[in-house]
Amino acid sequence: MSQSSGGGGAFTGVYHAFKEECNRYLQRKRIPVSSKGSKMFNMTNTEARVEQLTAESFVDLLPEFDTFIFGGDGPMWLREGVITDVSHLANLLIEHKKEVFILTNDTNYSRQTHETKLSQHRFNKKLNKDRIVTPGLLAASYINANVTSTKKGVYLLSSGGIQDDLKEHGINLFGPGPDALASLPNEGEMFTVDISVRSTDVCAVIIGLDRHLSFKKLVKAASYLKNPKCLFLAINDNAVLGDPNEDVVIPDAGALVAALKKASGREPITLGKPYSPGYEYIKKNWNIDESRTMMICTNVNCDVQFGRNHGMRTLLIASNPHELDEMEKMRSSRCDALPHYYITSIPTILPQNK
């Protein structure tokens, strides 16, 4: 009897081990565990398997999502041919009654400029500037929520349309444009920089990609930040901008932010992806369910990380072969930044008649 029991126990153990191995095999091969094809997509945010989507599998996915957020940066947004594909995809999602947003780290264009661009490329009118979230909008919202006196000034070290977004929300800003030290015969005179606006009259310093950044501007910004009540807001912490000329390195906002952090001894609130202000703004105003939200993007370190940090599933547009190689390397070393799905171009998930 004891021998029979022992044999039965051994058989049971082998059976369970075989069953578990079969389940692991099915997961690796992405075979549906039931007759419903959509079951293969029921993964948690931590189970990113870098699955390539097709038009058919993307359609199967749609019922699992209510909201789609496009990372409005990089080649997906700038190249004329690609943005036409984005319009087809966004319009398809809106036709399926999905909520669609654009979340960008770009300060060059205001929300109004983005809306005009959408109209020119025949995006559905439901995707208007109210659903375009820019650093300027996030900065204005944060300042208005945390500053009691709206009369105080905001020192802005950033170029482009961010100024329009701030002004639209009642922010009294100063600082954009050139502001360099005069040519001084004695370098000691740099210690007598005139700061015409008192630090007590400045409620916030915002720093992003400022083409006119100068030593004088850093002196002013660091001096204003000596006041602990002065908010310190950074657009993003990206180190460099992508450039087709591999011999040229173009610093992004993060490089400039690093200088001001060092000079002021303070840590900023970072507004852009992959940090939380953009998510919190959309969540507060539209009450999205992040578990039913997909982030569609072209950037792993920024956008995929943003989506995964906030409980979303992520779709990476990997248009360059080297990006696929990088994802393979990341499988073991950086699983927290892996996308859940990828495509090589937007048309691969669009219906044939689009």
From TrEMBL:
Its cofactor is Mg(2+). Pfam families: Hydrolase_6, Hydrolase_like. InterPro entries: HAD-like_sf, HAD-SF_hydro_IIA, HAD_sf, PGP_euk. Divalent metal ions. Mg(2+) is the most effective. One of its GO terms (cellular component) is cytoplasm. SUPFAM superfamilies: HAD-like. NCBIfam families: HAD-SF-IIA (TIGR01460), PGP_euk (TIGR01452). This is HAD hydrolase, family IIA. It comes from Ancylostoma ceylanicum.
